[in-house]
């Protein structure tokens, strides 16, 4: 090769090397959007060429306008007020999924539980003094079989039936934001609303998303953030339900926020928390709630018949010691 030819080739090679370097090293940034919604915090991390904060906030408000019982003008509030209206698409999605999971869990998951949640002081009313007779009377208009969706309208067997989608709405909101991001071409993201999650692709560290499961210690103020386990997950939804944050004491007795729709009383069994991994967060959210109602043995049976969901349970054994149970497929996610 003569020197003249080499003089022409060296700048060209240098240009190729510099260009390749910038292509390989220049990555779209990861944005983090944070705030408050539905009475809890949200954190959305995603890789994109620009911030999508405005679109994300609009979508969160759309879910709120459909499913929030704290908004007197929302779709679900209008239904609770017995207004005759056609439901929106979001409400329809949640209602149909709720109905399906109610049937599969024999009513352990039930969005008509609202009157019971309210009288026990965990809804949008203050707690009242209760007697077994009062609870039995309220149970007469609780039951997922007593409400249906026909021609995009809700039909109730009793006008006193009220709906509360809080045990699935956050998970559904997570899915809505995930779908929004995917429509914008985002493949790497983590959507977290109050601990309900959906993740895709990889984190900024080029690894699967690491998600912690808190040790279930009584902590109504969310001050104690000790981790019991860490999961490596991607391309799925995840939700955890537990009674170690939302509870109160009255006359020396602890009342947990998870109400069994079939009995009318707060649950009393040994599951401390239930974590579920599923294809979407709404499904994971609903099953996590149902498992807290069902208890460990019944939950194991459902998991055995539903291979598309995985679960991780923290429970108290007969001696009060903390123990865990994982479905076979869940074990691959547990990093420590």
Largest sheet: 8 strands, antiparallel
Q: Secondary-structure element order, as H and E?
A: HEEHHHHHEEHEEEEEEEEHHEE
Could you give the count of β-strands?
14
Number of helices: 9
What's the average pLDDT?
Answer: 85
User: Which regions contain 5 or more consecutive residues with pLDDT less than 50?
Assistant: 18-26, 123-127, 219-223, 245-256
Gyration radius, rounded: 24 Å
How would you write the strand order of the largest sheet? Answer: 1-2-5-6-9-12-13-14
Instruction: Tell me what portion of residues adopts beta-strand conformation.
Output: 15-25%
Choose one word for the global shape.
Answer: globular
How far apart are the termini? 59 Å
Q: Name the helicity range.
A: 25-40%
* Class of secondary structure makeup: alpha+beta
Commentary on this structure:
The protein has 336 residues and is of the alpha+beta class. The protein contains 9 helices and 14 strands. α4 packs parallel to α8, α7 runs antiparallel to α8 and α8 runs antiparallel to α9. The longest helix has 23 residues. The chain is globular and about 60 Å long.
